[in-house]
UniProtKB/TrEMBL annotation:
Annotated Secretion system C-terminal sorting domain residues: 292-356
Name of one Pfam family that matches: Big_9
Keywords recorded for this protein, A-Z: Signal
UniProt-recorded name of the protein: T9SS type A sorting domain-containing protein
Gene3D superfamilies linked to this entry: 2.60.40.3440
Signal peptide: 1-19
Length: 364
């Protein structure tokens, strides 16, 4: 019995970029369904497999799946000849993610930690009633209070402690076990902070803080880190110097990294002495490879490349002509579109491994 090639196509996944290989991985919500289509010249039916076991009764070119597993297909023609094996599609259910947290508190003062603020759930909201401490800290104790954790430190304790927790979403999907690090300090801050918060704004992070009193304060530096070791200064904000009134400050990080971003405030006085605020964190999913704006474009096209693995960019016209090809050496740059004819363009971003993501651009 001879075999013949199978042309494999997946529907509902046109927004994904794939590199070379014989396996594709797809994540979906537990309650959702995914349609997988196969097409092969001369095939009159198809044999579908899940985890190397044939799916009895499924012979059409389309398979609707909802369960996790590894799927593949063979085409069968009228003579009973079987095609080559298709690529394998690995289907996984989205799991909610508990993200590690870090917070700072004062000696003999309870610390309230809103762990759910940074946790990620794609398919359903978290069920705060399922928050549970997996391992208590060695010093002090943690209790659940209104969907948050309250750390009650041991008397006069100063230093670092950790505890772990887990939570489920409203479909019953459970997260990983996450760590919370608490730094209990004795030294007072040079200014009296009323709050220090970080909030996600789509693809940006808004850092806000407030003071009720400032004395000899010079400026604030907003710092960001992904590993709590290497900190980058991303903004400087002038302080009030002397103030007995409530003041509010805002700084926006327009280019956070994918994954976990830690933020802290460095508070410096006029004598160049400084201290740090407590640390807050936010988590961003994998960003789109790039942003192109405006789109449609008339003159200057602004390009922001978020994927650090991208090494090359090509701009191809609707007729297939490569109008521009250049290495990507900077995370943001501009392109003058005046020298190019109007029409539809396809912007190709390519990683070193050959994986390509394509964006449509209309040039008026």
């Amino acid at each position: 019995m001879r075999t013949y090639p199978l042309i494999w196509m997946m529907l509902l996944l046109s927004g994904l970029a794939f590199g070379q290989g014989q396996t594709r991985e797809v994540s979906m919500c537990k309650a959702a369904t995914l349609r997988i289509n196969a097409a092969s010249t001369g095939a009159t039916r198809y044999e579908w497999y899940r985890n190397n076991e044939i799916i009895v009764g499924s012979y059409a070119s389309e398979l609707v799946v909802s369960e996790e597993g590894t799927y593949k297909a063979f085409g069968v023609n009228k003579d009973g000849c079987i095609s080559d094996e298709s690529i394998k599609i690995i289907v996984k259910h989205h799991k909610p993610t508990a993200v590690d947290d870090i917070a700072t508190g004062k000696v003999n003062t309870n610390v309230l930690v809103d762990v759910l603020k940074n946790d990620q759930s794609v398919c359903a909201e978290f069920d705060a009633s399922t928050l549970v401490v997996i391992q208590q800290p060695l010093k002090g104790a943690v209790t659940r209070v209104d969907g948050k954790f309250s750390f009650i430190p041991a008397r006069d304790f100063a230093g670092e402690v950790t505890f772990t927790y887990q939570v489920s979403d409203k479909t019953g999907q459970q997260t990983n076990i996450a760590n919370v690090k608490l730094d209990i300090v004795t030294n007072p801050l040079p200014v009296t902070l009323t709050h220090f918060d970080v909030t996600k704004l789509e693809t940006a992070a808004e850092v806000t803080w407030g003071t009720s009193e400032e004395s000899n304060s010079d400026h604030y530096d907003v710092e960001r880190s992904q590993d709590l070791k290497n900190w980058k200064n991303i903004a400087r904000v002038e302080a009030a110097f002397e103030s007995r009134e409530s003041r509010e400050y805002v700084s926006v990080d327009s280019l956070p990294e994918s994954g976990l971003n830690y933020y802290r405030l460095k508070m410096t006085d006029a004598n160049a002495t400084f201290t740090y605020s407590k640390i807050k964190s936010v988590h961003f999913p994998e960003f789109s490879w790039a942003e192109l704006y405006p789109n449609p474009v008339n003159d200057m096209l602004h390009v922001v490349v978020r994927n650090k693995k991208v090494k090359n960019m090509r701009m191809i016209s609707n007729s297939g002509i490569v109008r521009l090809s250049k290495p990507v050496a900077e995370s943001s740059f501009t392109i003058s579109m005046k020298e190019y004819p109007s029409g539809m363009y396809y912007i190709h971003f390519e990683q070193e491994d050959g994986t390509v993501k394509i964006f449509k651009l209309m040039h008026n």
